[in-house]
Amino acid sequence: MQRNTQLYPLSGALLLNRTAWMALGAGFVWLTFRRFRMSTNPSSSTSAITEEDSITSGSAYTTVSTHTTGFRYMATAFITRLRLEVRSVCLHIPFLLMMGLWAFYMIVELSESFTGFYGITTIAGSGQIAQHIMSVRPAILLIIFYAAELTFAERGYRMDGIIGSTPIPVGVLWGGKCAALGVMAFLIVTVNILMGLATQILHGVFPIDWGIYASLYYYSALPLALHGVLAICILTLVGRKFPGMVLCLLVVIPVLFGSRFGMGHPMLRYALPPQFKWTDMDGFGREALAFGWWMWYWGPSPLCWAW
Asked: pTM score, two decimals?
């Protein structure tokens, strides 16, 4: 009865914890307020003007023949576009910080997953670790955020008119953004695998089954990439950044919490199969085959919408 009615007293370790985190948050807010500037750095603009004035053109105007058709041109344009999109996302300092926080979150989850009551420790084999790090549902929110950033990047810099006047097909631009989100999903799963390897090595459990860890790129990265394609399709149809993000969240929340909305069946939850269970005798068993059919079921949907 006491556990159901009494509240935690705001004293002792709990009070110290809350005070420390509130002080840390207030410190970050104060630091942000002190360092924030609406104007750009005048020294950098002056140096840029000086460099621009020092550049002299010594070559005469000549016409250059270009070929804007064919497979080679499309492949080159796609690779160039993908490189630009990946550089703008994966080398973004907030993204790197989020990857650091994600690694910390995963290592804490893994350390708690294999420690039971009375200090009893479960053997952290490759299959058991892969089962725990397979779920990447919180990363879907990160995918939605960067999908909005990529979709409206040209509009934010007012370069959409220039990009639209180039001979690059719209499909190449769309494919480059989707592929960049696929690279992001690949990096997120890579962080999970590295944390899983660190946990297994620290527990001293050998040998390491590299095939199980490699399969996570199929079981975890593919659903993340499909959610990225879905987010880009919704954002493109809406045509505005923040309303599109809200609509993406409204679509994804029933997927993440389907059982609470009467959508517990996997066929009603977009690209989000149920949690797998690993056994040393059968691996992922029949659930691996079912996962493939679910991906074939949900995978073509965003491609049809984009078309």
From this structure: 0.79
